[in-house]
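A student in our group prepared the protein record below, which I am reviewing. Thanks in advance; the entry in question is below.
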Amino acid sequence: MKPATAAKKLDVYLPATPAEFRDGSITRAELAALQADPPEWLKTLRAEGPHPKNLVAAKLGVSNSALVRNGITEALTTAQINELLADMPEWLVAERATQVEVRREERRVKSLHEDRRRDREEAENPDD
């Protein structure tokens, strides 16, 4: 597989990986070996970053779009993420609140769909 695919599966930022990882192709067996017994560079990269945008967003409790809206377009290190969490700028507080509301609404809609599905099944099978 391509290095970009392998990096995504490993949850690492491709440009921060070693050249031999970026320049070659990775077999499924090699990927499995990296996942099962990560080398030191992978352990360090996962712990310290820089992290890909999806992980930065998850660690901050916001969406990828929220990062872009607030000028964060590059990968961040764990230290930078921790600094943002410690400082809690206004934009981060607002985006986290928005994310909570989005998740609440997603749960509400999912529950509504489940209720409707259950009602249809009961109407189709009244003897059950």
Remarks:
- The chain has a mean pLDDT of 93.
